[in-house]
Amino acid sequence: IDLNSIGEVEARKIMSYEHKALGYRPPPGSLASQAQAEAAKHPKGGPSPPDPALLKKAALSDAAKIESERGHPIPKSTVVDGIDLSNITEAEARKLMSEEHKALGYRPPPGSIAASAQAAAAKHSEGKAEIKIDPQVLTEAAIKDAARISIERRSRSNSPPQIDVNKVPVDEQRKLQSLETKSLDSTAGTASAAVQSAVDKREKN
């Protein structure tokens, strides 16, 4: 985040996110305190204020760093792929489970984003049934996590990809391929390669 573009509105948001994540007021040296100091110099901010989602991600990341330095690490699953599991609803958790189950071809295992979301949603189920997170964000997160699980399982057992390749749409296949290309030198033999092969067969038929 460019603190020179931070105004009082953005600084208050960062302070709020970080305060909530920590459970106490962010200390001197934290991103929130730095943002407030900078905002005092230019209260209205810069010409292009940062994306609110970026502010939240930066604040939560800084809160995790502070807690880690103090020996009280925040659970790493608080925010995954832009999804705040501490506020996820049961409906959103079901959507994640459905999408990841569909991509994998079997129920997502413990440690998956779907399983973590269900556990988190169960802690605050009262009065939260609607979907507030963009369903597309949920779908992309589920497919990305399914790819991660598939890659990890394959690397452990040298087995073929576990994603049900015949059920992944073409547009999601492209996203999957892009994700794997960023994290791997080659997509040869990966989940996206298997999906691409299945898509090619479908298109020929």
TrEMBL record:
Residues 21-54, 99-130, 151-205 are annotated as: Disordered. Residues 178-195 have a biased composition (Polar residues). This is SMP domain-containing protein. It comes from Lentinula lateritia.
